[in-house]
């Protein structure tokens, strides 16, 4: 399988596909619908996408929290594309973006089912399990190494 990873924003021609994948992967299985409130801040975030033949098969939002901190949000890989390295590639591109822009720390709220994936990407668990959208999550963080070559 060949796929391309791109950094986009909410003005991209791919943004509607990003919304569809978020709905299909993150909301529909929970019986929820992506709301206007869920997307109201999308314009202020960077989005890393994976494309296969012009079709979005994965995404991750990067929210700038401060000059040192970013938060990863809404990581979603289409069901038929999971466990094929796409998520790892998206994380790699997102991390390079963070390093190039001199952010020092990444945080995220990982669904309990995704903890192993993020631990393999060197994220550390912080605190106790909490519930978001009705399911268990853990806060995870990663401190970026300034010396790393992107």
CATH superfamily: Gcn5-related N-acetyltransferase (GNAT)
- Count of separate DSSP helical elements: 4
Task: Quickly count the domains.
Answer: 1
CATH top level class name: Alpha Beta
Shape annotation: globular
Radius of gyration, taken over Cα atoms and rounded to an integer in Å: 15 Å
Determine the strand fraction and express it as a percent band: 35-45%
In the CATH scheme, what's the topology name?
Aminopeptidase
Question: Which spans of ≥5 residues are poorly predicted at pLDDT below 50?
Answer: none
Proportion of helical residues: 25-40%
**Helix-and-strand structural type:** alpha+beta
Report on this structure.
With 150 residues, this protein is an alpha+beta fold. It has one domain (4-143): Gcn5-related N-acetyltransferase (GNAT) (Aminopeptidase), CATH 3.40.630.30. Helices cover 25% and strands 38% of the residues. The protein has four helices and seven strands. The protein has a seven-stranded mixed β-sheet. The longest helix is centred in the middle third of the chain and has 15 residues, at 86-100. The radius of gyration is 15 Å and the shape is globular. The two termini are 24 Å apart.
Please describe the topology of this protein.
Elements: E1 4-8, H1 15-27, H2 36-39, E2 45-52, E3 55-64, E4 69-77, H3 86-100, E5 105-111, H4 115-120, E6 124-132, E7 135-143
Parallel strand pairs: 4-5
Antiparallel strand pairs: 1-2, 2-3, 3-4, 5-7, 6-7
